[in-house]
Fold this protein.
Amino acid sequence: MKKILLAFVFLLPLLEELSAQTPPFKSGMIEDEFIYDIAPFPECHASTIVETPKGLVVAFFGGTREKNPDVEIYVCRKDGKKWSSPVSVANGVQNASLRYPTWNPVLYQVPKGDLLLFYKVGPSPSNWKGWMKTSKDNGISWSEAKALPEGFIGPVKNKPVLVSGQRLIAPSSKEEKGWRVHFEISDDIGKTWKMVGPINDGKEIGAIQPTIFHYADGKLQMLARSENRAIVESWSTDKGDTWSPLVKTSLPNNNAGLDGVTLKDGRHLLVYNHILGANNKAWGPRTPLNVAYTKDGSNWFASVVLENSPISEYSYPSVIQSTDGMVHVVYTWRRQKVKYVKIDPSKLEGKEIKNGWWPY
């Protein structure tokens, strides 16, 4: 018995060390929570996150289910340690007898200015219309809705990026004549807009919902969801005025949304579902939900698995880096809730992704 006890005493520090180790592909995760527990709607989707001078703000659409006329845009704020309850800030009511669903909100904080909320209203993505609201108090109250110029819908899913201090590039896309990517550009922070593209015809490669990385040499890289079983990319060397033809990357795509952010240390972080559909199909399960990073836009490193349950879905991520350097991610959790994860990027580990395979 004494020998057994002595062996246990020697083994105890080792067991404690093993139990304290971070599980594989969880390094850097420091917070993991739902942003609400109770809501006045059964389903939600398409969340977006932004940092304001008074804390984080998240928006998403919620209602009976996607496409239902009762789907509205909701907002939650985190100005301390707790998220506020969901509050409806926009709906698709047209008149007393007609109401459309709302879709895909996107938040953007103008530097030293208003908080912008872009969203869409319409019966379907092929014929929705773009709208915008503004907030001067960090998301507590909102202006009346303002229609975007005819033909413009704003950023379709992912946040705009500010280039050269003044040019705001909204990554966007349309679906009515094939899946086609375009960009809506404002050189006066949202007062006036011009359109670049579409940059593809939607035939050989169909792509929507782009996100943008920016590089130290001024280059921009666009990554997008596609119907072609791969995340696709395009590059710009003139601040978004022209873009290279769409090509497939080495990363798989299950025909689901993704989002990325360029970090202060120069790495580019992407949140997406690293999985393909079975039997050569474009559509695949929306699980697992993964985080990878690249330094050059070509070579990728597997870093975090946010969700890996076979119970789908975990999808439509939105990711930012706040002024304190932390990374913040929100995403759809089984269409029932919005999940929030906080990551310390200095603690991220990476394993090279070879030939498109996640290194399990």
Remarks:
- Confidence is low (pLDDT under 50) at residues 2-20.
- Helices lie at 2-20.
